[in-house]
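pinning this so it doesn't scroll away 📌
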Amino acid sequence: MGNAVKAVPWLLLVQPSSRVWSLMGICLAAVPAGVWMGWKFNQRLDQLQLYRACYGLLTVTALKLLWDGIGGYLR
């Protein structure tokens, strides 16, 4: 819902071309498929596996951000 609220002012400020409208239509059609796939994956995963995967991704992301921050500071 939040993205739909942001889309209205964006569409008023930017005059999208026909290519952009086509891309938005394709993406809009892909949303139900993504929700359905997420629902199915969530049903198949054990909650402990899901927590481990999420925290693993968060840890990798945090380490990458720290690496970039320290590297930028030392330059």
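📌 and the second one:
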Amino acid sequence: MVTSKVPKSKYAKRYPKEFQRQMVELHRAGNSVAELSKRFGPTNWAIRRWIKQADRNEGRGDGGLTTAEREELARLRRENKQLQMEREILSNAAAWFAQETAPNSKRSSGS
């Protein structure tokens, strides 16, 4: 089966990081968010989000997570999920082996 990366919404459009960075720079140079949206296409909301994230990454933000922190959090969540699955498998295996090797197991001796 072939899968492709599809935006979360059928209307969502992904903009390259370089484009996002340029929008932030243009805003900081004095262009309004509405003007940038009209000239280049991204929504006002998207441009504001890019500006807010750039501020966070540079330590001037509102206390939210930086891009590096977001990436680390996603990595740690994936790792935690993997460890939980492995623990569940090992727990089930240990229970199965304990049942198999118990001297008074419920298995019949065949007599």
